[in-house]
Amino acid sequence: MNKNFNIIDRKFYGLIDKIKKSSYENLVYEIKKNYCTLSPNIKSILENYFKKYPFWGSLCENENDFTEIEAKAKVLNKHLNDFIWLYKKLGDYKSKYLLFAILNNWINYDFKSLKHTLSPMEFQYFDFNLIPNCKNQIFVDVGAYLGETTLNYINCYGKNSYKKIYCFEITPSIFNYMQNNLKLLSNITCVNKALQDKEKVVYMQENSSSSSANRTESFGKQKISCTTLDKFIKDKVDIIKMDIEGDEEKALKGCKEHIIKYSPKLLISIYHKNEHYFKLAKLIYSYNKNYNFYLRNYGGELYPTEIVLYALPK
Question: If DSSP codes are grouped into helix, strand and coil, which group holds residue 185?
């Protein structure tokens, strides 16, 4: 191993070497073995979580269902070089350690490293070390839910931080709450549409555990109008935040022209799909190489959730 590596590099590349030496079948075996050694309480928490939020696959030891584990092993086996690419592109060692902690959690169920990366004192999406100030920005909140991210943005940076805010939310009942929460603020446009890669009709799939996890599908009962950011907003956009339950890739494709022309700050949730950790960064980089990338953890201690990719113009 390179003598110039620091301790975080050594941890990351040591784990990568271990993965490289394993076949897909061996990875599945290793992860399953590590999972089965966990306490019944921890296993119950994880299995219930994946049942409530089935983004990553199901997991139930008693039913011999290890779909979630198999999915992790598959992406590690097929895309290890993509994770290495992301590690090399990350702009600070806080981000690099987080990527190591995520992969170590996937394989070894290491909760200690993951807990160490949490950012409890920061507002989600607004790391002051990465974004120290904002003024007269056009801010687009995609997946605005109740409007809490928009309110946090204003609380963090002040009322002079924006000249216009767009809030996109797909769930009609939640949309009404959001409008009410933001009604006293000026220059905020609330939009009950989905943002994706083309104008079309999609359908809402409701999550029985939380409306915050509602997402779109190509079939269903409740129709939702869908547009793209490039078509809906013609003005220069300064900041785009996305948390849309796995549709982030489609939405990024729908704001390609803004990314190419204006290099907006991008604050993207990347944890809904295993491949999004590297795939979304690579997509942004393919549009515009004038970006630095960072990762921050605002989620749980047992499984990596609320992981945000900061793509910030150089």
Answer: coil
DSSP per position, 122-147: SBTTB-TTT-----SEEEEEET-TTS
Cut 0.90: pTM above it = yes
Is the distance from CB of 237 to CB of 263 less than 8 angstroms?
A: no
Taking residue 184's Cβ as centre, other Cβ atoms within 10 Å add up to 7
> In terms of Cα–Cα distance, which of 54, 87, 49, 57 is closest to 300?
49
Question: Is the CB of residue 228 less than 8 Å from the CB of residue 203?
Answer: no
Q: Tell me the C-alpha distance between 130 and 138, whole Å.
A: 18
- CA torsion, ordered 46, 48, 51, 52, to nearest 10 deg: -110
Along the 314 residues of the chain, how does pLDDT read in single tens digits? Answer: 566 679 999 999 999 999 999 999 999 999 999 999 999 999 999 999 999 999 999 999 999 999 999 999 999 999 999 999 999 999 999 999 999 999 999 999 999 999 999 987 778 999 999 999 999 999 999 999 999 999 999 999 999 999 999 999 999 889 999 999 999 999 999 999 999 999 998 888 888 778 777 888 787 788 999 999 999 999 999 999 999 989 999 999 999 999 999 999 999 999 999 999 999 999 999 999 999 999 999 997 899 999 999 999 99
- Could you tell me the two tokens for 100? 């190591």
Nearest by Cα to 249 from 216, 280, 226: 280
Closest CA to 233 of 136, 142, 135, 134: 142
DSSP 228-247: -HHHH--SPP-EEEE--TT-
Helices (H) and strands (E) in the chain, counts: 13, 11
Domains and their CATH numbers in the chain: 7-116 (no CATH), 137-313 (3.40.50.150)
Maximal CA-CA distance, the chain: 59
